[in-house]
Write a structure and sequence with these properties.
This protein is α+β, with helices and mostly antiparallel strands. The protein contains five helices and ten strands; from the N terminus they run E-H-E-E-E-E-E-H-H-E-E-E-E-H-H. A seven-stranded antiparallel β-sheet has the order 2-3-4-5-6-1-7. A three-stranded antiparallel β-sheet has the order 8-9-10, with no helix packed on it. Helix 2 crosses helix 3. It is globular.
C-alpha cells in the first residue's frame, strides 16, 4: 500500500478548564447581558476591562451559569457563579477554524491573556485539558466509506449516516465509540464543506493548497 496522502493534520477541538476566582463585577455584567440576551433572543455583547465577548441567553452544560463566545475564529467560554462547589470556574473551547489558522499554543496564550484582562489569577497547575479532537485530512480522488474496513472493539457503538443516491446507498459519515470515551469519526470533509457552504473552511483550504502545493484554486467544488 502506498503512503496515505495526508494534506493536513491538527487539533480540531481543544477544551481547557481553569481553576481561578472570577470578579463579582464581571459576573454581574454577565448576568445583565444574559437577561438582555433572553429578552432579545440573541447574544448580547459585553465589554469588560477592554475585552469583548458575546453572552448567550442560557448557561452551559456542566453547571456553568453563563455561556459566551468571541467570534467565529475565537473561543466559546463558560463561567460558574462564585457559589458553585467546583473551583474550576472557567471552561473554554477553541473553535476548529481558530485552531487551524493559529494553532493550539497561540490559542492557549490568547485564552490566558483574555482571562488575566478579566482580573483572573492562576498558575500553570490551575489549567487542565478537558477534551481534545485531532483531525487528519486525507486527499482521496474517489472516497467510499465502508465500516467493514475498520477494526474496533466488539462492544464499541457504531453510528452511520447513510445518504440515499440513485445507484444505491452511500455511507457519508461513521462514528466509532462514544463520548465521554474515545471516538473515531470518518467522513467526506470536502463534501461537508460544500453542503454547508462553509466559507471559512473554503478560504482555509484554498490558502493551504497555495502555500503547501503551489495550487491556485478558483472553484472549491472542482
Amino acid at each position: 500500500m502506498s503512503d496515505i496522502p495526508i494534506i493536513y493534520s491538527g487539533f480540531d477541538t481543544l477544551e481547557l478548564s481553569y481553576r481561578t476566582p472570577l470578579l463579582r463585577e464581571f459576573l454581574g455584567a454577565l448576568g445583565q447581558a444574559q437577561l438582555m440576551a433572553k429578552a432579545e433572543s440573541r447574544a448580547t455583547p459585553v465589554n469588560f476591562n477592554g475585552t469583548e465577548l458575546f453572552v448567550e441567553s442560557s448557561g452551559g452544560q456542566g453547571g456553568y451559569a453563563y455561556r459566551a463566545h468571541t467570534g467565529p475564529l475565537g473561543m466559546i467560554w463558560k463561567f460558574r457563579e462564585t457559589t458553585a462547589k467546583s473551583q474550576w470556574s472557567v471552561h473554554v473551547k477553541f473553535r476548529a477554524h481558530g485552531l487551524a489558522v493559529n494553532g493550539p499554543l497561540k490559542m492557549k496564550e490568547e485564552a490566558d491573556l483574555f482571562l488575566r484582562k478579566l482580573g483572573c489569577q492562576f498558575e500553570s497547575i490551575d489549567v487542565r485539558i478537558s477534551r481534545t479532537d485531532y483531525a487528519i485530512d486525507i486527499l482521496l480522488d474517489d472516497f467510499h466509506l465502508n465500516t467493514d474496513n475498520f477494526v474496533f472493539h466488539s462492544r464499541s457503538k457504531v453510528s452511520e449516516h447513510i445518504k440515499r443516491v440513485s445507484v444505491g446507498d452511500e455511507y457519508t459519515y461513521a462514528r466509532f465509540g462514544r463520548m465521554p470515551g474515545k471516538q473515531l469519526c470518518a467522513y467526506n470533509k470536502s463534501g461537508a464543506v460544500l453542503e454547508t457552504n462553509d466559507s471559512l473552511w473554503k478560504e482555509f483550504y484554498i490558502e493551504f493548497a497555495r502555500q503547501r502545493f503551489g495550487l491556485v484554486i478558483h472553484d472549491f467544488a472542482e
